[in-house]
Amino acid sequence: MEGRALSMSAADPPEAPPTPRQQLLAGARSTMPFLASAIPMGIAGGVLGLSSGLSEFATLGLAMAVNSGTAQFVGFALIADGASWPAIILTTLILGLRMLLYSTILIPYVKEVPQRWRIVLGFGLIDEVFFVAIDRLRNGRLTHHKHLFFLGASGLLYVTWMTCTVIGMSLGSAVPDVEKLGLDFPVIAMFVAMLAIGLTNWRVAAAIGSAGVTVMLAQGLPYNLGVVLAAIVGAVVGAGCELATRRNQPKASEQKENVA
Q1: For the region Disordered, what residue ranges are annotated (predicted)?
Q2: Within its chain, how far is the Cα of 102 from the centroid?
Q3: Please, what is the average pLDDT of the chain?
Q4: Where are the domains positioned within the chain?
């Protein structure tokens, strides 16, 4: 009987890969926990955009273009401080340098994804999407229709963020001094949660640690330039750690082959 059971289990067909629709929905479900933070953050973005002097069209346009809560909030602060537009644009671009680190880490896992999809998904590669995707990629749980998983994960957050930005603009117009209610606190809560996850990876931890030290040392710089400098330092350190790891992997493989 035991032999028969073993032969039957051995004959069981392998689990079917997820369909494109299933992978799209899986991506959306993976980022649903972040909605608890994205919803109030999006509302806060709409409120702070109007309070910093932007029009409703400009507030929504900035949110749609940068697709980054960090860059958006820093941009609002620079606008409120009267910074020039070139400085604001340069700052938001520099704050996106951490995406260079994310892209460097993801490249080995998405080589089979068509180039046209990589361009589209690159726009949606935000912190939350990276953290939910890299865990699945490294554990071998994301092997089919990877681009649809990324699309589902980033699409849900993007639509939610824009919708809540519109809601925030409506609140900002209807409720006086709503920006003083502390709606930007979820920004801190979300990044604390992601940092806790990221610290399990020594490369991400090195980038986070170097950026944290830099921002504390440079907190006296005007126009939040300490944040910009910290983003640059963190991206450089993280990319350096990733490159060092890749260079050491072939050496480790050669040593194992020699031992064998």
Answers
A1: 1-21
A2: 8
A3: 76
A4: 18-184
